[in-house]
C-alpha cells in the first residue's frame, strides 16, 4: 500500500536532500508546508526561485550580492580599500561583519585547497585576488581562512603567491577563545596562545 | 552594514519558519539551496507548489490524498470496511500502515480535543466519522489516538458519542514497548502492562 500521495512523497524527497535533514525531519517539514495557507506556500516557493535567480557574485570580491552590481561592502565608500580580508566562504564574511571591528574589504575564495577532494588553485577565486593586489592599492591582505589543516595550507599557499607583489600578508591571531575555559583548550591552541602572549 | 542580499535574507527567513529549524540551520539550508544548479532549485520550488495544489483530503476518511478522489486505502477493495481506525493525524496512518498488520480503513481527525488550545469537537473531523458509523456497515471503531492526556480524552469523548450506534469501540493496547528495557519504563506504563497481562 502506498502511504504518501506522490506529490507529497516528492516534496519529502526534496526536503530530505537538504543538509542535516533526514527522512523523518523531511516528513515533518513537508506536513508543515502543507498545513500553511496557499499564499504562504507560494511565498516560500517563490523566495527559493527568487534567491537563486537574483543572487550573483560581486565582480570584485566574489561575495554574494543581489543583481549585477558591486556587493554592499565593495560599493561602500566608508570601507578601507587598502586592506583585504581573504575568507573561504560567504558565511565567514557574515561572521566577521558581526564583530563590527573590521573596516576593510573582503575577498571570498569559495572553498579551500583540498587535494584529497580534488580542489586545486584553479577551482578557487585566486586569480581575481591576485588581479586586485596587482593593481597596487592594497597594502595588507589578512588571511582569515579557518584555523584547520586545509585553511592553514590555503593561507600558506596564498601568502607565497602574494609576497612578490610586496604586500603585507597577515594571519588571524591564534589563542584561547574569549569566555572559554583553559582546562578545555586543546594543547595546540594553548601552545599558540602562549607563543602569542602580549604584555598587559 | 547589511550582510545578506535581501533575496537571501528572505529565503533564510522562510526556512527559519519551518518547525525545528533555527536561524543558523536556516542559513545553512539557504546557502545549500543557492549552491544547487538552477534546474534543481526549480524542481524544489515546484514540488512545494505542486504538493500544496494537488493534495486534498479523502472525502471519506479525511486522510491526505492526491486529486479529488478517494485515498488509496478507501479506494482499495482489499481493505475491510467493517473496521475503522481513528487517528489524530495523517502521520499516524503511515505509522500504522508501516506495521503491515491492519487491514481495515481509517478516519483522520486532524487533531485532538484540546480545551487549552481552543480545539473543540467542531474543529475536528468528528461529524464525518459519526456519519460513516451511522450508515451501519462499520462494526468496530479502534481508537488509535496518542496515549497522552489529550489523545486519551479524545478517545473517551468519541467512545461516548459512538456507543449509541451500537458499534464496538476498542482502544490500542498499553504495555511495555517491544525491544525496550523494563528499568526504563515509567510507572504508568508498567502498571498498564501488568493490568493487560495475557496468558502464554
How would you explain this protein's 3D organization?
2 copies of one chain form a homodimer. By secondary structure, chain A is an alpha/beta fold. Helices cover 42% and strands 14% of the residues of chain A. The first copy, chain A, has 8 helices and 6 strands. Chain A has a 4-stranded parallel sheet. In chain A, α1 (6-16) crosses α2 (23-35). The radius of gyration of chain A is 22 Å and the shape is globular. The mean pLDDT of chain A is 89.
Descriptive terms for the model:
homodimer; 200 residues; alpha/beta; four-stranded parallel sheet; two-stranded antiparallel sheet; 8 helices; 42% helix
Portion in strands of chain A = 5-15%
Biggest sheet strand line-up of chain A: 4-3-5-6
Class of secondary structure makeup of chain A: alpha/beta
**SS field, number of helical segments of chain A:** 8
The quaternary structure here is homodimer
Radius of gyration of chain A: 22 Å
How many strand segments of chain A?
6
Mean pLDDT of chain A: 89
Run of helices and strands of chain A: HHHEEHEHEHEHEH
The termini of chain A sit apart by 72 Å
Sheet with most strands of chain A: 4 strands, parallel
Overall outline of chain A = globular
**Largest interface, C-beta within 8 A:** A-B, 55 and 56 residues
- Which runs of chain A of at least 5 residues are low in confidence (pLDDT < 50)? none
- Helix content percent band of chain A: 40-55%
Amino acid at each position: 500500500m502506498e502511504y504518501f500521495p506522490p506529490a507529497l512523497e516528492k516534496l519529502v524527497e526534496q526536503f530530505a536532500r537538504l543538509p542535516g535533514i533526514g527522512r523523518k525531519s523531511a516528513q515533518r517539514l513537508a506536513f508543515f508546508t502543507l498545513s500553511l495557507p496557499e499564499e504562504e506556500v507560494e511565498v516560500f516557493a517563490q523566495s527559493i526561485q527568487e534567491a537563486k535567480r537574483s543572487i550573483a557574485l560581486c565582480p570584485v570580491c566574489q561575495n554574494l550580492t543581489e543583481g549585477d552590481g558591486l556587493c554592499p561592502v565593495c560599493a561602500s565608500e566608508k570601507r578601507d580599500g587598502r586592506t583585504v580580508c581573504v575568507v573561504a566562504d560567504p558565511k565567514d564574511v557574515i561572521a566577521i561583519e558581526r564583530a563590527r571591528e573590521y573596516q576593510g574589504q573582503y575577498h571570498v575564495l569559495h572553498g579551500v585547497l583540498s587535494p584529497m577532494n580534488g580542489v586545486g588553485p584553479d577551482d578557487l577565486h585566486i586569480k581575481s585576488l591576485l588581479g586586485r593586489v596587482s593593481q597596487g592599492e592594497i597594502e595588507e591582505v589578512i588571511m582569515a581562512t579557518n584555523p584547520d589543516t586545509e585553511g592553514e595550507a590555503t593561507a600558506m599557499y596564498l601568502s607565497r603567491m602574494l609576497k612578490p607583489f610586496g604586500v603585507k600578508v597577515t594571519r588571524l591571531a591564534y589563542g584561547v577563545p574569549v569566555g572559554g575555559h583553559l582546562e578545555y583548550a586543546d594543547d595546540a591552541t594553548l601552545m599558540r596562545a602562549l607563543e602569542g602572549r602580549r604584555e598587559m
